[in-house]
Amino acid sequence: MRTIKLNVIKDAVRDLLVDSAQNINEDLLDALKTAQLREESPIGKNVLSQIIENNLIARKKNVPICQDTGNAVILMKIGSEVCFKGDLTKAVNDGVKEAYVNHYLRKSVVRHPFDRVNTNDNTPAILHTKIVPGDKILIKVANKGAGSENMSKIKMMLPSDGIEGVRKFVLKTVFEAGGKPCPPIIVGIGIGGNFESCALLAKEAIMRDLNDESIDPIARKLEKDWLDDINKLGIGPMGFGGTVTALAVKINVAPCHIASLPVAINIQCHAARSKQIII
Questions:
Q1: One domain for residues 101 and 196
Q2: How far apart are CA 260 and CA 190, in angstroms?
Q3: What per-residue confidence (pLDDT) applies to 57?
Q4: Cβ-Cβ contacts under 8 Å for 137 (sequence gap 6 or more)
Q5: Digit-coded pLDDT (tens) for 228-275
């Protein structure tokens, strides 16, 4: 067994969240530059230019890309040969506290959905863990803002709805969202599993590498086809109209019940802030 000190986890979570809030990933920056060249609307081109400039200023001055520094979403794949001494959840939340308090990121978490009292340190984090073979830990974080999260949807569809039914649900969701999630967006789609697991599939989808493709042949084709369909909706950058509404569609699939077709759509804004590390 390999013992990993919880301080290592805390520090990694803190550093990843700060880095994610301030520094755009190169694959996303490249995608925005490509989108600017591809965008046919003059207003859309100008909006993309300003988005790119904003990202570069944030990187240079070490300030947040967006004022909504979001929920801290943490995905951890923990090797089965790893052990900890202490409370892993506390270590993760301590890392979140240090990131948001010490680095002046906006605290956006309230302690209760109805009394709306701010926790003042952006905890608790949204933490998901999986046990996998090996003696390493993969930590992936996302600063997930509410503007895009609020436009996300889940629907328990029927097997008879099929691919076309899911496609219509995806396009309807994106169209009704319009400019609210700050396009160009990334559309994460979870298909299969059950009510709760398809939502996690969608969340994991938006945190995939922007340039990867699904390993599932059906999903891989749909990612390309539905991206084309979404970009024909005419929403455009920040909802001002244009030919680039989405940068990518990512679909994760899983086995499901014979009578169910669960579908979750998690929308990510153009500030697709996500970082990872392997310990």
A1: no
A2: 13
A3: 97
A4: 4, 9, 76, 77, 78, 79, 82, 278, 279
A5: 999 999 999 999 999 999 999 999 999 999 999 999 999 999 999 999
Its domain, for residue 246, covers 147-273
CB 227 within 8 A of CB 279: no
CB proximity list for 101: less than 8 A, separation 6 or greater: 107, 120, 121
β-strands 137-144, 274-278: how paired?
antiparallel
Tell me, what amino acid is at 55?
A: N
Neighbouring CB atoms inside 10 A of 132's CB total 14
Q: What is the pLDDT of residues 191-207, one digit of tens each?
A: 999 999 999 999 999 99
67: tokens are 């004022």
3-state secondary structure 167-191: HHHHHHHHHHHCCCCCCCEEEEEEE
Q: Is the peptide bond before 42 cis (omega within 30 degrees of 0)?
A: no
Inside any domain, residue 245: yes
Quote the radius of gyration of the chain (alpha carbons, Å): 19
Residues 233 and 185 in one domain: yes
Domain boundary among 144, 165, 182: 144
48/238 Cα distance (integer angstroms)? 9
